[in-house]
Amino acid sequence: MSTVLLEARGIAKRFGGVQALKDVSLTIASGEIYGLIGPNGAGKTTLFNVFTGLYPRDGGEVRFAGAPLNLESPHAVAAAGIARTFQNIRLFGNMTALENVMVGRHLRTRAGVIQAILRTRAERAEEAAIRRSAYELLHYVGIAERADDLARHLSYGDQRRLEIARALATEPKLLALDEPAAGMNATETAALRGLIEGLRKDGLTVLLIEHDVKLVLGLCDRVAVLDYGEKIAEDVPEVVRSNPKVIEAYLGTSH
Amino acid sequence: MSTTKERFGLALIAIALIALPFVLASAGTAWVRITNFAVLFVLLSLGLNIVVGFAGLLDLGYVAFYAVGAYVYALLASPHFGLHLPFWVILPIGAAVACIAGVILGAPTLRLRGDYLAIVTLGFGEIVRIFMNNLSAPINLTNGPKGISRIDSFQIGPINFAGSDTFAGLVFSGPIKYYYLLMLVLLGVIVINRRLQDSRIGRAWVAIREDEIAAKASGINTRNIKLLAFAMGASFGGIAGGMFAAMQTFVSPESFVLNESIMVLSMVVLGGMGNIWGVIAGAVLLSFVPELLRYTVEPAQVALFGKLLIDPEVLRMLVFGAALVLTMRFRPAGLWPETRHRREMSENRA
User: Fold this and answer.
1) Is residue B45 part of a domain?
2) What is the ipTM of this complex?
3) Mapping DSSP to helix (H, G, I), strand (E, B) and coil, where does residue A157 land?
4) Distance from CA of B218 to the nearest CA of A (A)
5) Which chain B residues touch A79 with a CB distance below 8 Å?
6) What integer best gives the mean pLDDT of chain A?
7) Of B350, B216, B209, whose CA–CA distance to A170 is shortest?
8) Model-level pTM?
9) Which one of B202, B206, B217 has the shortest CB-CB distance to A78?
10) pLDDT of residue A183
11) Chain B touched by A48 (CB under 8 Å)
């Protein structure tokens, strides 16, 4: 196995009396597509939100790229190199597609208020670079021709792509996609699959939550299955597919 | 960037704005003063627009920063402490103090949004006013409700902004000189606003307004960026306050009541939150329409009915309210809403 990129140990999260995550541990290797599946309410998105600093955790540690990951604030997580998309698309609706991606460049650029007011040479050069790389990313995800359209005017599939482009703009090592195929038709899902495979080819590690089991099992190198906040399986898709616990979680026990 | 047509238009507007005070002065110096106050309100609206329009943080206590700027000027250029610093020293100090006040307001309210933020900022505005009202003892800092009077006018070399000067046969009265100075400041503020809007910071503000969680997840330190919005907005308020103090040569707490905050907010909302030109239009409209009514309603009533039926002051607020309600009903995004559509990006096309 190649080097470990993310290592989570004993992640726990409670919402009042509900134990949403119970001692979840997993390791994601550099360069793999790691799938996270499970029935509704299994805790997949909760785990995502813990990993990306949106929810404070109740226990556990995460190491990322060889160092402990500061989970206190989402922007620190993004700075460490984890970018994400959201299950219910969260774009900046009244900004253009290009501007959405430009916002993603915020983290890796520097110009502050004074430089902006004085419009220094460095600031202008940086702005031009931001614009250029944002445009390249739109091109990469295949929606360059929609660059000047408001994000809220894009089609559903394009919005998903735009979210990925914005996440890529933060130069992540790990891209976490929360149900990217939700609500997509077969053609769109196939195109998405091509996009994700391309990302891996370009050296990115992908963490994928997905309901579309066919997509996950076809695409992922390894898959973890969550059920009632616990990890019940973690292996290559072929093994997970025939794991009786997984079948039970999805289909229920036979009586 | 700009076409010849646009340049021609801008030149026409510039000429009109340069000629405006003399045209107004022929109708009476009062109109120049009214215009000056309209420009002050434009400055305030542009400052508030950063907080409310760009960053989407509803601030109902904006007048506090105006007050801070005004009092800084009053204290440093009046017989109250015997200090008489030149205005170009005081205005930056006023902006800096207001900026700090902005951070002081911003820091504890970072987790609040919408209505809750509005309530806290409203309280902050009142606290500042009440401080001004009561800081006359044990040390007489603000002279309490009596306010500070005999504040210095602006002075550039031999030119004092209180009196009249004659250049090339034209009489430059005090208000006309203030008009030109205000226009210069306004030009600067517009340039700063536009540059901020199109910058990395400006995008981060709008991103927070659009979706704070997504902004955080995209790597924006929302705490710092929000504080920056409060600080920038407050600085503009501080500068406007300093100009106000010099123009009035008198400040007292009653100039900085909640109504003023609401007024400035109305200008931003009516004009079109986030759009600089819309905000300017809103401020000009809401400053002038009440004054126009004041000057027309009374004669109109006397001419129609032979006597005064409704006090113009009452009618003014009625029309004002109706205008706002109608705007919200028919143009909820403001008269001139922000359009982030189709910027000139063609040069980036691959």
Assistant:
1) yes
2) 0.93
3) helix
4) 5
5) 219
6) 92
7) B216
8) 0.91
9) B217
10) 85
11) no
Give Cβ neighbours of residue B42 (< 8 Å, ≥ 6 apart).
B186, B279, B280, B283, B284, B287
CB A236 within 8 A of CB A223: yes
Domain-embedded: residue B263? no
Q: How confident is the model at residue A254 (pLDDT cuts 50, 70, 90)?
A: low
For residue B350, which residues of chain A lie inside 8 Å, CB to CB?
135, 139, 144
Q: What would the mean pLDDT of B310-321 be, rounded to a whole number?
A: 76
Burial (Cβ within 10 Å: 0-12, 13-18, ≥19) of residue B262: middle
Return the ∠ at Cα B37 (arms to B54 and B11), rounded to 5°. 70
Domain membership of residue B154 as a residue range: 30-256
pLDDT of B349 reads 39
Predicted confidence (pLDDT) per residue in B22-49, tens digit: 888 888 888 899 999 999 999 999 999 9
What's the number of domains chain B is made of?
A: 1
On the CB side of A47, CA atoms within 13 Å amount to 33
Please name the residues between 322 and 341 in chain B that touch chain A, using a CB distance below 8 Å. Answer: 338, 340-341
Residue B318: inside a domain, yes or no?
Answer: no
For chain A, where are the E strands, in sequence order? 4-15, 18-29, 33-37, 59-64, 67-68, 82-84, 174-178, 205-209, 222-227, 230-235
Residue B160 resides in a domain: yes
